[in-house]
Prior knowledge:
This protein is mainly alpha-helical. It contains 21 helices and 2 strands. The chain has a domain of 276 residues. A hairpin with a 6-residue loop joins β1 and β2. The chain is globular and about 70 Å long.
Amino acid sequence: MxxxxxxxxxxxxxRRDRLTLLLWVVGVAGLWAAGVGGVGAAFDEEARGGxxxxxxxxPALLMFRGxxxxxxxxxxxxxxxxxxLAVMVAFMMTFFAVRHSRGDEDAGRAELVxxxxxxxxxxxxxxxxxxxxxxxxxxxATFAASVALGLPAQGSAxxxxxxFGVGIAAMLVGLLAxxxxxxxxxxxxxxSIVVGVWFFTRGIGDALGEPSADLTRxxxxxxxxxxxxxxxxLAHPFADEPWAPDGTPLLLFLAAAAVLGAVVVALESRRELxxxxxxxxxxxxxxxxxxxxxxxxxxxxxxxxxxxxxxVGWAVVGLVMGLLAGRxxxxxxxxxxxxxxxxxxxxQLGEEGGGDTEGxxxxxxxxxxxxxxxxAAMQAVLRLRHExxxxxxxxxxxxxxxxxxxxSHLLLGALTALAILAVFTVVTGASLAANDDDRWGQxxxxxxxxxxxxxIYLAVGAALVAFLPSTVAWLGWVLLIGLMLVGExxxxxxxxxxxxxxLSPFHWVANPLAAQPDWTxxxxxxxxxxxxxxxxxxxFRRRDALV
Length: 547
């Protein structure tokens, strides 16, 4: 029978992911619970009204937080965290889907399973069921935490439903990517790009939204309807009068699931095991002379070739972000100038150094891009562990020094991050210059302020490879995303949580828009990075290559 073996494959998938699932439950439900508890204790209704007014006056905040729909505790928490929770759930499910589909095929596990008494559709069905169960656990924990902290049950249920819908859509995108692309790495990258498009499409719709006269709500523009993350936001689960929660946008998840599911089934029914819609290109018969370039025993040519595809992909992200910043910044500024209430708030902020609307918007986008650049730099270094396990003996049998091997990955990681920031700066500056807005000096300052972050995460990658090589698959990304979220949300919890905010390197980035930027934190970050790199180089030279 075509479904034979679904039960045992489902149990195996759930057992395999038990620890990963626990981390996602703590991350998603824990972030929501901590936020609700912190904001509820630190801000009364008047203070929450000030937060909402600030959001309404800053399109950069609308892009990354969301469009507010009231001043209740639930409404403020939803606009502050929903977009990030949705992205976390989406990444959880895309990684899950690729790992259990294309990842198993790459590792040979799928072929072993197909060699037993299982039905033709059992692997796909068990993967979908396991993903739905894991998603139910995460969303159920979020719902339980929300109700336990006193938020309305209806709004909490709509929040859980929105996250569940985003997760299902993301899982189907991951399954689709696993059928289209020939490797799990390419499939994960493509699915992640789709999630990023969802986030920024929703963000553009919110940034271009129309604020209400009392600055307690923002009516999102049409791009929000083009994003699954936007559908959950448009439901406004915790909205107060005169708005009310509206579950209609959530119905779009059913349509998306039906369409994506039909495409996945159609491809699966026609695809042979191990094949993909896009075939993997065969390599050339002879490599370039640069492939063997080893200055001072560092395989720079080989490392550059291995990282070329990823580096180009990261640079494209910088290009897209630069186009977005250059095109959106003038539109956002014009929208604020046409609204007197928002103009008054921006003028008040200007007295505190934040009145440059275009500069603030570009800086906010550059902040997100700094996460991308740090991720690119760290990924380049972490790739060394994969190469060490797969081809370590072969590489070290050539005239390659261990310190040079590490140095080549550090060099290419740094160059990739610099390319991302440079592309963003040039594209943004050229777009603004076309509108007679010369901001080249400011853009360079913005890029320079984020270089210490790149240095820190280069060093973190090197430290993990040298000291904790068994953790490179997950710990680096936890430190990147987790500390970013700490820096983003700790201010909502009041002064009592300031010590947690200080743990995040993102908190210490200098403000390039300030009259006199404080570079103290940046110098500390660079010093810590230098110490970590030195210790990592010494350790990597001495530890066993196959440890």
